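Final report, section 2: Outcomes. Of the targets proposed, Chromosome partition protein Smc is the one most frequently requested by collaborating groups, and we therefore present its record in full.
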Amino acid sequence: MYLKSLTLKGFKSFASATSLKFEPGICAVVGPNGSGKSNVVDALAWVMGEQGAKTLRGGKMEDVIFAGAGQRKPLGRAEVTLTIDNADGALPIEYSEVSVTRRMFRDGASEYEINGQRARLMDIQELLSDSGIGREMHVIVGQGRLAQILESRPEDRRAFIEEAAGVLKHKRRKEKAQRKLTGMQANLDRLQDLTEELKKQLKPLARQAKAAKRAATVQADLRESRLRLAGHTLSQLHLAHETHAQAFSQASELHGSLQHDFQVAQESLQEAEAALSRTQPEAQAAQRLWFDLSALSERIAATSRVANERAEHFQPTPFPGEDPASLLSRAEHAEAELGQLSTAAEIAAERLDSIREEVEERAEAAAEAEREHMAQVRAIADHREGVVRLLAAQESTEQQLQAALAESQRLHEHLAEQRRQLHAASEELELSQRDAQQHSLEPLQEAADASAVEAAAAEERLEQLRDRRGALERTISKLESRIETLEANAPKPGVEGDFAPLAKFLRAQPEAQVALSAALGAFAQAVVGDPSAHSWEDVARTVVVEQGQGEAWSLDVDLPPYASWLTDHVQVDGSVSLAVYRLLADVALCPSTDKAQALVAEDPRVRAVTNDGVLVGQGWIALGRGERTALDVAAQVDQAREELASAAEELESLSGVFAGAKQAAEESRVAQAKAQVALKEAAQRDRALQQQQEQLSSRQQVLQQQVERTQQQVVAAEERMKDLEAQKAATADRLSRVEDVEDEPSTEARDEASAALAQIRAMEMEARLNVRGAQDRVEQAKASAAGLRRKASFAQQAKQQHEREQHKRAQRAQLAKTVADLAAEIAQRTAKALEKAANKRSELQQLLEVHKAAEQKARRDVEAIRQRVERAAQQRHEAELAVGQARVRLEEAQLKLSEQTGVPAQNIIEDFAPEEDFDVEQERARLQQAERDLRSLGKINPLALEEYKALEERYEFLSTQLADVEQARKDLRGVIHDVDAKILQLFSDAWRDVEAEFPKVFATLFPGGEGRLLLTDPEDMLSTGIEVEARPPGKKVKRLSLLSGGEKSLTALAMLVAIFRARPSPFYVMDEVEAALDDVNLRRLIALFEELRQDSQLIVITHQKPTMDIANVLYGVTMRGDGVTRVISQRMSRAPEQGSSVTPLPDASH
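The predicted structure is given below as tokens.
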């Protein structure tokens, strides 16, 4: 048997279908690192059933599928087919050639086939196990496997020998038998439970059958005893009915007497309530008067505070504007200057008019000279075209010059008008700004802020009062709850009746409260009353103090300064003073235990107690206190009542103050709202002024821009005039230079007229400019004077308005001062009235408390008598109910006993009435004995015999089944024992062979060295592990960890080769096992390979040339840039003397 071929499709780097044709002997797989050589070993392990992803050098099993590389896309499945030559029948299957296929998909699904037929993983493992190939895969020695062999546990090394010995299939058979045995245990437990349950049911059925025989006798005795006891019961019920009827009569008489006492007490209560109702309205009226005066006082205080603040706020302020007289003086000065400028303007205008007349005269003269000259020119033939053009140009220039002059004049006039408008806009803007300054928002804002501060202060004061009122209300509620809790949980006296706790008659100062409780001791729980009115059994449960008056007294002892008698710190009601002073006459109060002991040591008659409750006597000390006493609870209740009264009084006082603060806060809110409205209106007016100022400012800017543009146009016009004058002069010069071929007319007259006209026109232009300038100055002066007049008028109006406002502020300040003075005077009167009202309220409150106390006492008396009446009524009602119940019990007993016995009640009384010597206890004992006998028999079942027989047959059947299951378990245990014996035999034989081979192989690899295999537990051959001892030549160490890397590899190979020799396998796979060996050790290993090739097929992954030399076939593995592995096969033919030669294999493919 040997591996015949291996076909890979999509497994790791084998993207394309690749087939490796193996031959017997040594097949070497060679190639560069990373080309996919080890993937061949992984494919062999995977197709033979390997389930560990780490063993296949991956993180998960899906990693065996080609993941894609370069231009190649990932594949969806991996498939490996291993073909085995089974001509020798080594595999237990009737085929000479066996193909094993494993296929895996990307979604994790797997398929297995044997010769193209679907199979299971278990089928493949069992098929290969007979050839020594199991899950340990000891025939495949991959990279790192050698180190793993030596580093593994001894139990793991045992698995290699078991796999080679063929033990695994027997182990699986044992595991299957153990699983079946475990499953059978559940059935066995169920059968045992059923059998035990039936066995338990058989015994009661047997007892029931036996008990049925005695039932009749016991039931007869039971009936007779019941009738005799029924007669006795009816007689007793008759007697009880008569007794309860007599008690009802007595309770009715007592109830009538108490009803009369209750009516008398109610009359006293009505008198006390009438007195209380007369006093209560007067007290309530005084209380309301005090509340009203308190509220009035608070409002007056708030009014005074507001009046003072307003008086201070309305103090006079200086006028913020400019003086109107100064503005008027400036206006008058501007008007005087306007007169001078107007005169100058008139003179300039008159001069302009005279110049214009002269211009007209000279223009007419120039025109006449021109007409004469043109006539002369026309008389001469117009033979010179150039002269004509020059003259035309001169005329055109003259016209343009006249137009430019007119435009310049227009621009000067327009500029003057714009300057006037700009000046007027500036004056109007300045006036608006002054008006805005005079109507500033600051005073109104200050007033609004002041009112807001005042309102916030009033609200804060009101909130503080509200919080304080809420805190007082919560305090009162807590104190009332605390008083109720203390009274409800107070220790109750151990005796009922007209007794009161002693704590009710004592009041100690706070610092002496603990000391008083400690000094009284058990008497702190005492009650006050008349013990003779109660039985000694009731009185004995508590300490009773009799009432009696007496004067305070103490021992005739001079106490040191630090001590005082305890009675000096206690207030005692006179009714119990005699008893209390007797109890405390020898007790002194000391500040500390040391001083208390010193005082007792000085005079043993004295007992000393400290403020923290330590009581000291002669020869003894009582440290601390026990449970809380009635005296402690009473003190806590009194303290809580005092705090409650104080809180209630403060709450009443706070109510008036709260009402005044609430009204003051409301007034402050109204004032704040008014100030906010005034501020809002002023703000709107201010925004309107601001919008007006913005519009004026915008208009001023537009006018300024227009003035600037007009000035630029004036400058451009003047430059244009200069250019035209120069052009005119140039044209005239050219005409003067024209050479006339004929006599030309004289131009002297025309030239003189033109020169005179030009001169006068220049004068006219100058005069016109002077007039325009004078008119501009007049307009400016006029606008300035008018603006100053307006400003003076506005300033005068503003000043008058300011004076009126100041007058109003002075009046308001005076009014506020008057209000403040009146408020102060009224506050004094109100304080006196409030004091009187408080005194009156206190007097009426005290009187009201007296009437309340009287009413409460009368009410308590009524309540006490009412309770006694209710108790008497309850007793009468209970007696009446008892009579009725006795009658009902008698009737029910008659009916019930008649039904139970089947005998009429009258017959029971007549026939079974108890005799004088009737012993009811003896008869009851007889009845109970009969009932016990009947109960001991259990339930009488007439079908018990038939049920017992059927149950017994089922019990016998289940017992038989149980015996069969136990026999099957015994047989399975026998099978497991046989399998263990077989495993023991196989492993023992293999172990002896491997143990014998290991020293030989080790000596071959380590000449001169020693090595052996040892069992960790020779006594337990089924689970013992295997230890390896190795000592290379020249070394004394035996620990494997001290060996070098090459020595470890050779030691592991020695163990594997020993297993191979002891239990040969058809093939072995070696993956670079000689990588760490030097040449000498490599040759030794090759010698072993030569030995193994005689009986087995070797597939070797190697880089070593000596290993390649001994191979029968070489497989070259390469990988190009696309990441896909390709295989090339070569057969190596070896001649005995000439070495090896290479022959290509024709069937190599990929």
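The first strand starts at residue 2 and ends at 9.
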